[in-house]
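quick one, 522 residues, struct below
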Amino acid sequence: MSVQVNGRRLVTLALLAAGFAFLFRDVMVKLVHDWGADENYSHGFLVVPLVLYILWRERATLLSGPSRPSAAGLVLIAGSIATLAAGRLGAELYLTRLAMLGTLAGIVVFLWGFRRLWQMMFLLLLLFLAIPIPAIIFNQIAFPLQLLASRFGETAIAACGIPVLREGNVIVLATTTLEVADACSGIRSLVSLLTLALVWGYFSGSATWLRWLLALASVPIAIFSNAIRVAGTGVAAHFIGPEAAEGFLHTFSGWMVFVVAGVLMLAVHRVAVWLAPRKAFVASEANTSTSPDDSRPAGDDKSLLIRGAVAAALLGAAAVSLGAMTRTEVIGPREPLAALPLSLGDWRGRDEGPLDARVLEILGADEYLIRGYLRPGGPFLSLYVGYYNTQRQGQTIHSPLNCLPGAGWEPTSRKRITLPAEADDRSGKRPAEINRLVIQKGIDRQLVLYWYQAHGRIVASEYWGKIYTVLDAIRLNRSDGSMVRVIVPIASADAEAEQAAERVALEFVRTLLPALSKHLDG
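---
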């Protein structure tokens, strides 16, 4: 059935497109930039044209059928605008991008109703998969995938009779050393393959259950395909040399991941079609057939134009209001980290060498300090402080839970402890909590204390740290923050040595905090 797109509908769509672009222009520009800079989400360039094509292809279905506009759409639009404001003022790109999807959903509900929104949910899901997930969550997903790929690579390389040693996500061969970096974690192929599975299911006309099966199967397929890539790179590096893990060969192996994954996806689809009874497809086709009501007109175009104008006016007013609220971030006065005294009580410090440029790029810190401290009769203690001027452009403090295992240190215990009473969170309410880890590499053991600090507040959770960053950005117009880490070696494997290391670390922290505050809190 063909549906004529008349003048009023075109004017309605033009008004909405103009209002949406006016409100989200900065968000869209930054998103497109991230698609170009982040290979994990480069498929976003294909998703948007694909969504527009599907909209055009399904225009008859979407523009026909009963239309039941709902004022709830205005509530959804208003909530999305509030989310956009919180994201822009509160240093969280992800919120601003989710606000785009929420606004689109609200427009659909306000103009056509919830039934039409349900029909378009597949398209919104595709757009959602093109939005980079927050770094704080990305790190939680990517690093376990790195370790999984590293373990599989080590096992496969050893099975080929090649001497190999793995430390965290680093694979050591006789001729070279391979690091399974974020880009090799498999998350890129995971997100891209999930998108491919959804598109495949749509264009193949598969039953709903089969579309779900393809989407679920894409997860293990992506992980397995990437693990094969890591193992193959290790074997090639052993026989060919380090150049097998660099340049064209490395890029080519990335392409092969999708070839292998595509073949496996096709196999899953064929096996499912072969095993499933024919009636499952017949039932699905019957359920998705067009009902008699779907041939009815979509409603009054004049009413549609009025609602579209109201929604566009709301978007335009929100854009003007948010523009007036935008403020240049305040950077509080503070002393540089390098000025932290080398002498803290009876502790004497010594600066360590600068971080490797590659490591520094991963950490993303604007300023950092690496220093060792020693006192008479005590162990040599390591201090790291990373400071971030702003987190509004997506920078996120890197958790030691990602860095330490990547260097081969495996956590053997993890808990939170309360700082001494003198080192509270300066709110006067309760002592601050920090993280306590025991890590091990071979026979070496270390005790780690770390926390997140900003504006006189000390927190252990990186998630609460992010929440406080959003609140402080709105309240104080500041999104700066820092992570502090203290490492003390554990002399032996017994519990007493571990407790002794903890006492030393807490004594140092008690001495450190008063001096450190003016270098972080401003």
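The first strand starts at residue 165 and ends at 167.
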